[in-house]
Fold this protein.
Amino acid sequence: MPSTRSALVTGAAAGLARGIVIDLAREGFRVAFTYRPGGTPPDATVAAAREAGGAVPVAIPADHSRTGETDQSVRAAQDALGPIDAYVHAVGPILVKTFAACGMDDYRTMLAGNLESAVEGAFAVLPTMRERGFGRLVFFGMNGSHATRPARGLSLYGAAKAAVTAFARTLALEEGAHGITVNVIEPGDIRDKDANRAAARALPARNPTGRAGSWEDVAYAVRMLLSDEAGFINGQALGVGGGLVGAFEPKR
């Protein structure tokens, strides 16, 4: 049966988050999503969700690296959709650079865009979820962030995502009694973020499945965690990477 729940997805003008919006809209969710002003326009996400046969999603401009804008985006989503049942915080800048080449501005960017925005979003959505006795929060880590698995060139990004994962899993302990679950998706080995599952299966990869993943694989995992039936899945970091162990494939 199609869902009648509402969801807010952050950073969904492109990439995996766009796919999540498409999937949720197709499955009956009332969806709002954020996009960065001056970045990729929201039009393609809106059009793709409409083509998928779901309700037209609400596009909300927000720069999640700026304090206050994540909170404002939640308020805007609530104004458009009513109380938010599910919050998918997929936004988060990535930096691939050795630590020796980084500076404090890089550090601040990684923390603001990843951890601070996640914390601000949780502060914004949780009060009404507690009142209603239901809520689903899904944050995005990186492959291996639950184990603080190191990867060259990802010192600051990896630290920020490990912090997001630790925050989410601790939040799960505190909010579970209110009917709220908090989980983490760790995507990996998604070669082409716009390719559907059928197209991705044609792309060879060195993860244990032998093929690349797709936005549909990630979106399915998110939708499962948002479902009413997933109320006993809490505080988990779910890897969607075909069994890939490292942050990325080792070079041969």
